[in-house]
Amino acid sequence: MNFPLMRTALFVPGTRPDRVDKAMATQADTVIIDLEDAVPPEQKAQARQVVRDKLAEYPGQRIMVRCNSRGTAFFEDDLQALAGNKLGTLFVPKVETRRDIDAVNDALLKLEKAGGLPEFSVNLLCLIETALALENAFAITSQAAELPRACMVAFGAADYATDMGIALSAHGRELYFPRYKISNASHAAGLPGPIGTPYMYDLQDLDTCRSDARRAWELGFTGKLCIHPNQIDICNQVFSPAQAELAFAQKVIEAFEQTRELGQGVLQVNGKFIDKPVVERCRRILALGQAAVASSPQ
Fold first, then answer.
1. How far apart are CA 186 and CA 141, in angstroms?
2. Which of 81, 156, 237, 268 minimizes the number of CB atoms within 10 Å of its CB?
3. Residue 57 has pLDDT above 80, yes or no
4. What share of the chain is helix, strand, coil (3-state, %, to 5)?
5. How far apart are CA 123 and CA 190, in angstroms?
6. Do 254 and 285 reside in the same domain of the chain?
7. Does residue 267 lie within any of the structural domains?
């Protein structure tokens, strides 16, 4: 099962319905209503009502809800509040083991049954954001890949850095290893490429935000969490194929089809030798380009 396109996923506090409306008017592929870090304990109940109202107001796959982690007293209340709503994706923080995957899946099955939703209809996005979770990255992704439910993982650098006792920087060198390991684990398990951590170092430094997004893209990430609307256009551009890429990919596919019809096995395009992996990558580039056009909010 496939996840909807998620080059950008914009966080909005669950206590701010006005910001949800503003976020839905942006070009973000997904809007995340947050019930976790952005909501103090005394406002959790209020935020859950906002989530219910907005899921009813904006039906479809574009809204995602980040619940509180499974180890907290808020997790069950969050899921009970979501029952009966047209929830597209649940975003679960602090996923650290394969047992967490099983437990969350069981909780989602109960939510789906209570709400009259088809089994496995709610997508699952798991946040890897601790040292233990990173060590278990392949166990988490491989367990998620076995579910008959659309699953992806995302990287949360802030909690990971706190867990490691390190500081986040503008250059992002301290995140190379966790990014590589999470991306490799996702692809090895057969999941889509993961979603990258938000750029938080300086919200006004958009050039460095772009560089940070490109570093994630170069390591196999397919999108990025965003914490400010000014990051959306940049990240959409980084995680979308450029026109030159699309044109080259189309040329490769056309030449490949022609050589097959002629029974030829050797293919060159623009002086470059083209083999089967290149053709497959070009197919993916074209599919991504089509998905990006189709998902753009009108």
1. 6
2. 268
3. yes
4. 50, 15, 35
5. 16
6. yes
7. yes
> Contact at 8 Å (CB) between 7 and 64?
no
Q: What is the pLDDT of residues 76-96, one digit of tens each?
A: 999 999 988 889 999 999 999
C-beta of residue 3 within 8 angstroms of C-beta of residue 29? no
Residue 298 to residue 13: CA distance in whole angstroms: 24
Q: Taking the CB of residue 65, how many other CB atoms lie within 10 A of it? A: 29
d(CA 256, CA 266): 9
Q: Which domain holds residue 266?
A: 243-295
Contacts of 153 (CB under 8 A, 6+ apart): 95, 125, 126, 127, 128, 137, 140, 141, 144, 182, 185, 186, 191, 194, 195
Q: Are 230 and 24 in contact (CB under 8 A)?
A: no
Is residue 297 predicted with pLDDT exceeding 60?
no
What's the pTM value of the predicted model, to 2 decimals? 0.88
The token pair at 168 is 């986040």
**271 pLDDT above the threshold of 70:** no
- 69 and 38 in one domain? yes
Whether 266 has a pLDDT exceeding 90, the answer reads: no
Mean pLDDT of 130-159: 98
Amino acid letter for position 103: A
> What average pLDDT does the structure give for the chain?
91
Separation CA 273–CA 212 (nearest Å): 31
Classify residue 247: in a domain, yes or no. yes
Q: For residue 92, what are the β-bridge partners?
A: 126
